[in-house]
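Tutorial handout. Part one gives the primary structure; part two gives the three-dimensional structure as tokens.
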Amino acid sequence: MRRVSPESYQLPACDVCGRHMLPGERTQEYVSPDHERRAVCDLCRDNVKSSGWVRADRAPQTPAEEPEKRPRGRLLARLSGRRQPGKREVQQAPKPSAPTPKRARGHDSPERRIRRAIERFNRSEHRRTVEGLTRSLGRPRVAAVAPAEAPEQVRLTVAWDLSWYQWKVVFSNDAATAVSSLRSGKEVSELGPADRAWNARAGEDGRLKLRVGQNGDGEAPAREESA
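Part two.
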């Protein structure tokens, strides 16, 4: 009798557990809920039946699908409870959330601080002082300074030929005390260079207004506002 080498043929295998059949053992063809026809061994039949598989000879006729489009590997691995060889489940680490941008810190520009200070001055009772002196002494010269060393303050100087007055505007929450008298004098020469850099003007009603020029502290010029 001619002997057949085991390598010359291959016994059928179960499509669920992957086990090769023993001599004399047979597989049964079943149809999965996805209409896939698979060979199932005796040990896996109860498992596939509980998952909704039916024998091929009892399954309804359905249009054939292209085998390469069926997710065979995942379905069989789920039924057999084993991982597919050569593949590893990689759990991706969650992407770090983008840091919330921080608000820019810092103070307003010198021009903006001066404009805010003039608005507060014009709403205060000190405007009436400038109005009364303007009626008797004429139009004054005005300088508004935003000191770099005191970012929360603005210094306003209103000067005539024979007298000058100075006010301090503080950007506090209490608008009633935001404007206060600082000092006064007789000669304009008593003022420092910054307080003599005339960059604003006063109207007949005592209201101050910026005009083109330096703010008296060597910083950005302030443009005149429209009336």
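Part three, for discussion. The beta strands are 28-31, 37-40, 54-55, 141-145, 153-159, 164-170, 179-185, 200-202, 208-210. The chain has two domains: 11-80, 110-210.
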